[in-house]
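Recall the central idea of this unit: under ordinary conditions, the amino acid sequence of a chain determines the structure it adopts. In this exercise we apply that idea directly, starting from the sequence alone.
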Amino acid sequence: SSGINAEYGGNCFALAYFPYLIVYKNSKLSEYSSFWPCVKAGGIYLLTQLCKMIILATFFPTYEVPVGKIDLHGELMKGAVDLFDLVGLFVIISQQIGRGDLKILVAGVGWAMAELISMRLLPLWVGARGIEFSWKYIQLSFEANISLAHHIVMAMLIWMWTRNNIEKSVLPLIISLLLLCSSKQTLLELLGTLFHFTSFGILSINVMVTLLVGLVATHLYINLCIQDNSWGNPKYH
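Accordingly, the structure predicted from this sequence is:
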């Protein structure tokens, strides 16, 4: 019935969007009234994606690939262009004024929210409301949550990379994690094609990789705070 369809669609919508609201309301974003900086970050996200689309269409035209085959060259080029996401996040962090943790949240949440609205709003609003149940939209909602954590971690790594007092010995690790984050989606698609994983298999790998990178990045962030001995020092943040 239409009532059941609407309820299912509302549940998927809430599952995707409420974590963003919770993070905003229960973090320094709300305390420092950072709504418009997040909107600005979202604008930089859209501009970055537009530039990526133009580059891909201009320099890396697509061509038909036989069913079951992998367009390795195309996937590698796509992964290379995804490095522009790092540039976009760097621009947001470098332009944001304030504490380091606030810069990380503005960049990560603003970027992830813009991706959620531009990539998942329409499928969730139209698709999920039109059927009684489908795992496809539950998965889409979970992916939105993973994306939020993923982009906050990316912003954290980029912010640490910009620090002058970061130990040189950990820079290769930070750069490696950034490259992994940037190419994660391309790698997941390749894994799915090569090993014929189900969509939930890919989702599980996505969760594990995001969690692992997040734990390592958080450990590095805490060590940097301890090293500076300034958890609450505005100069540090």
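The chain is about 80% helix and 0% strand.
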